[in-house]
Design brief:
This protein is α/β, with parallel strands linked by helices. It has 5 helices and 4 strands, in the order αβαβαβααβ. It is about 40% helix and about 20% strand. A 4-stranded parallel sheet has the order 1-2-3-4, covered by helices on one side. The model is unreliable at about 15-20 (pLDDT under 50).
Length: about 120
């Protein structure tokens, strides 16, 4: 009986670990260079209907960042190559964040900014 209990406990532990690992969510890249795309305001609802809760956007377009406000969808904001040289200066990097990210932080779940290559 103890062996069965131990085996069941072990299997439950594995299943909880499995669920913990694979329940982190699904993410997509959201590019906007194409024809016949939905407007930024329509995209969050479309993504939520597909159970997508993480999105990488390629720039800090205000209409896109505003569209994700209050949705709970996590955003990663890409930083174009044209900004890389400026980001080596801490003051310019701080200014870019204050102008392009900070205004949206209170309502939009921005979790990271990264560079594009």
């Amino acid at each position: 009986m103890a062996a069965i209990f131990s085996t069941l406990l072990f299997l439950l532990t594995l299943s909880e670990s499995y669920v913990g690992i694979f329940s982190i969510g699904v993410g997509v890249n959201y590019g906007r260079i194409a024809n016949n795309l939905p407007s930024p305001s329509q995209v969050p609802n479309l993504l939520k209907s597909l159970n997508i809760n993480r999105v990488k956007v390629y720039d800090s377009e205000p209409k896109v960042l505003q569209a994700f406000a209050g949705t709970g969808i996590e955003l990663i904001v890409g930083l174009g190559n044209e900004f890389l040289q400026k980001m080596s200066d801490p003051q310019q990097a701080q200014t870019w964040i204050q102008q392009n990210i900070q205004p949206y932080l209170s309502q939009t779940k921005i979790t990271w900014s990264e560079t594009k290559f």
